[in-house]
Amino acid sequence: MMSDAGEYHTKAALLVERERFSEAEALIARGLAEHPSDPGLLHLSALNDFHRGRLEDSEATIAALLHASPDDRGARYLLAEIRIEEQRLAEAERLVLELLREAPEEPTLYLLYAEVMLRSLQVEKADQLAREALRLAPGHAGALVMSVLCGTIRGDAEEAHTRLADLVRHSPDHRATADTILLRLLEEGRNREALALAREMLRGDPADQGLVDTVRSLMVATHPTMIPLYPMTRWGWHGSAALWVGFIVSLGVADRFLAEDALMWVIGPWLVYVVCSWVYPPLLKRLLT
Fold first, then answer.
1. pTM score > 0.70 for this model?
2. Are residues 95 and 106 both part of a single domain?
3. What single DSSP character describes residue 109?
4. How far apart are CA 262 and CA 273, in angstroms?
5. For 120-137, how does the pLDDT look when each residue is reduced to its tens digit (9 = 90+)?
6. Same domain, yes or no, for 216 and 246?
7. Domain residues for 204?
């Protein structure tokens, strides 16, 4: 039976590191039953909850830590990570900048800041921060990963594909980051960057059918012959609605100035365009795959 908080902490930290979260939770609970205010065990409890996706529980524990010790860097760092996961990126940036002012030589803080910037799609700044982390800690695995992600999104794929393939194969945490960035690129309509990233992710996990489908769809969306359909591939139904409004307005204007026979030269090409927008993308997808 353990009675020392440090012993509980050492063993529980090892379990968290090995992602044996259920066992870690049970051990941390026993430790906190004996040492309810131990900051090390409370921090491990918050970290374990964070890894299990229980962000509210993690934040509640952090609040208790910060109430007792407002300057606790570990608790503030973890709070910044929670804000990143919640996509509250402005708050995350504020927290990281506060930490950087206190510890400007800490490479992990530059890496955390780089993740905030990358999730904000500020790729160049994220890359600069990753490079600064590498300057402070050459060979830092996380900083190398961040640099690879930035290079892939920019299209600098010379070294990226091998490293990123290893990344998504062996590092679930970084795979989750890559998934988030891919989703953001898709939401922003940045299909070429999304395709580059999805391809490299697929190299690391070729059995992922979701990635296979994503790559196929993006190959269609970025194909040169799809340029006439750009408004719909870029803005979806918003683009389609705008095109229809534009057509109806144009038709109303043309009706005032053109003869009925001439109007067919307006309506005919539009109908061909509409039919092509329905038929051509799935046909192209088959041809490309």
1. no
2. yes
3. H
4. 18
5. 889 899 989 998 998 998
6. no
7. 87-222
